[in-house]
Design goal:
Blueprint (H helix, E strand, L loop, with lengths): L10 E2 L11 H9 L4 E8 L5 E3 L20 H4 L20 H11 L2 E6 L6 H15 L9 E4 L2 H10 L5 E5 L6 H7 L4 E5 L5 H9 L3 E5 L4 H9 L7 E2 L1
Amino acid sequence: MSPWPYPLWIAHRGAGKLAPENTLAAFRLGAAHGYRAFECDVKLSADGVPFLLHDATLDRTTPERGVAGERTWAELSRIDAGGWLNRLWAGEPLPSFAAVAAYVQRNGFLLDLEIKPTPGTEHATGVAVGATCRELWRGGTTAPPLLTSFRPEALQGAREAAPELPRALLLDTLWNGWFDVAQALGCCAVVTNYALMDAALIGGLRAAGRRALCYTVNDPAEARRLLALPGGGIDGII
C-alpha cells in the first residue's frame, strides 16, 4: 500500500465541541490541544464559493434561518457562527474554505475534508471542491486534503476535477454494493461510523489495498477497542 500521510488522530469539525464547529476558532483550539489534522465540512454558496458548514440550513449554528447554499458568500461571510455556542465566541464568522486552506498549510496541518453538498448540488459541489483543492494545494509542501463524502455523486465530481487527489467513501451503514462503489470511484480509503468497524471489515479493506478510518469517536473505551483491532490496524480516528 502507498504511504499514508495522515495522522491517526483527526479532530472533528476542528475542536467542534469546545469551540464553534467548522470555524477557524475551532481549528486553533484543536491545534492548541495537539491535533495536527482536522475534519471539516464544505459546501457551496449561491455564487459558487466553497465555505465551511455542516448542515444544509443555517438554523442550528447561526442566528439566521434557511438554506445556506441559497445565499451569496457576501451574505454568508457576515453571519455570526459562534454566538450560538457561547457568548465568548460571538462574532466568529463562517470561514471560506480558502481561509482554512491558508491556515492549515501555513501550520503544516492536514485535512479530512467532507464534501457536504446542499441537496441537489452533489456533483457540482464535488467538481468545485476538487478544482479548488487542486488549485490551493498546487506546489504545496503538505499532503492535499483527503476528500470524503457520503454522496458518491460528489466524489465522482471531485474525481473528474482532480483525479490525483485522494478520495474516501463515508458510510453510516454498510449498504449493498458499497465496496463496488468505493472501488469504482477509485477511493483509497473508507470511513465508517465507528460502531461498524471491526476486525473483519478492517481486514477486508486492507486486503483490498484500502485504508480504514472511522468517526466520531468521543468515548475513550471505543478508541481503545479500535486501536486494538487486528487486521492491520485502524488508520484514522475522527
